[in-house]
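B., you asked whether I could sanity-check this one before it goes into the benchmark set. Here's the sequence:
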Amino acid sequence: MTKTYLLAAAGAAALSAGSAHAEAPKEVSELVVTAAPYVVSMDSVTTSVEVMKRDDLDAAPSAGLGDVLSGLPGVRSTFFGPGASRPVIRGLAGPRVLVLSNGVGMIDASALSPDHQVANDPQEAERIEVLRGPSALAYGGSAIGGIVNIIDERISSTKVEGVHGRMLASGTSVDEGSSVSASIKAGVGGWVFSLDGLHRESSDYDIPSPAESRRFMAAEGEEYLGKEPSTVANTAVELNAYGGGVSYVGDKGFLGMAVKRTDTTYGVPGHSHEAHGDDDHDHEHEDEEGGVQIDLKQTRYDLRGGLNLDLGPFDQLKVSAGYADYEHAELEGGHIGTQFLSEGWEARAELVQKARGGWQGAVGLQALSRTLDANGDEAYVPSTETHELGLFTLQRLDNDTWGVEGGLRLDRRELETDTLSRDFTNVSASIGGFLRPAEGWFLGLSASRTARAPTEAELFANGAHAATRGFEVGNADLDSEVSYSLDATVHYGEGPWEMDLHAFAVKYDGFIDLRANGQFDPESGFAVFDYLQTNATFYGAEAEASYRLWQDGERSFSLQGAADYVHGDTDLGPPARIPPWSVTGRAVFDGGWWSGKLELRQVGEQDRVAEFELPTDSYRTLNAYLSATPFADRQLRLFLEGRNLNDAEAREHVSFLKDLAPLPGRSFRLGVGYKF
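And here's what the prediction gave me:
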């Protein structure tokens, strides 16, 4: 895992990498990411980002986005079985965490419900950037809690000579799974062509305990018969994704287009559309034979370019746009029960200022138009058209030993159904500063005011939602959600030491929450939940440290540690699904032609829960990873991974299914990768 840092207001765009006219960043040991529209080096920023590069993704499990990122400090997974997972950042999920594809929105339905998968698999990426904390200045209110940017290289911004590519194949024991992916890129003069593909499939996965938790069975008045191994039914996954792109790279910049197709079918455990209770709300076990499956398809087209120019104070124009046609059908016994459709486009343009005397900046425009429609048994949100327009500027002054940064954004969002419409105008702003008091030290502090307009579900929902086991009722009178946040960063990197500490505190005015009103829907048997607004506070911290005990040439041995904690509270009590603390320790050996890692992770108990939410027990997992390049061709790599080697019963508290589907039990993954 490679860590990097970027401008608090900027987010994680990482589009066209750099300008011929931009000032080069300083030589640093850490990776520099072009996250702001302009170049920002690691020692001049004030927020926290994790970056997974291609080698990290090769070593990551064959899983959805949330599960691949889960375990990073401050990040968890919504885990709705292996087929659907989305990241949870600092206790925030859904519409407060923005998932991007090369800096442009996904245009899918993954933020609407936790059983909806992100229409982009991690194995398609060359890198994934995770920004913790508000980034609304660069990307709008949906980034109020954080950003995950999935970056591929279908559209190349640099020239490529010859043919290059990679292949990866692996198999897992816990679910009899297999995964194969490959990509190839070829350059002819200024033209660059790319092709990539992915196939992943798995069966129902094994666990060391019954699927239903001890706490859940006790709450239902049922007898817990002991910790016997079992299998979580209806968790099979089949995924196919393939795409290609072409770009032209010249002296003045680049321009390219890409197309991608995603086609996946996966089971949804614990997802029953039958009545969940009678007048006394008694629990009924769903029929595990032929449960609900989701058949998801998306076709996506992207355009991206960068132009070096000399236009007054500006020296570069960056543009990116994406159009997607998305659909998924929820299949019950092979028949469509509910269908979700999402079609639309998003585009952004950024003018980057000439770097002068340590001063950098950019102005940008972002626009979106999307139609979300639902038909069938679970069409709890009406057909809604959403239009957004955002204008922003980001500015930074770096005087080597100290610096300041800030930004301003104006957003307009309009949402319209056949019978209702709402529009919102929001202003977001941030300011920050940093010091480099001594060699290797970086101290940063940033404050921001960010605003988020409500979503379709928060405004207009009215129906049973089996994934969340609630009858959700929206509120068309909701106001924008406004947060006031403070982020502090301490970084030290010198000699064998590498340390980071990030602390944050956020106060919400008009926090949009989903709360039970004490009633039950007679048809579905679900408790009725209302969207309402309250005041809320969140605070916490993430810490990471690494100490290199020994190094001899390319061989080294290091000890690493990480920890995170988040506390959330509202005027109505604790919010639901706040993750407990976690601590992770690793021993890492790099022997040149082989490397190994041993990891012990402890996740605490969570007993601060909302109404209708059960506490979750703590758990501890032991993981190991071994990689080798034993042949003369060092581009051929073999790897063996063991996850949850102690076969612990591990339940993810932030998951709606935590009491019905624990995380997989002991698993081994054997694989081979090759680059050329």
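One thing to flag: The longest helix spans residues 54-59. Otherwise nothing jumped out at me.
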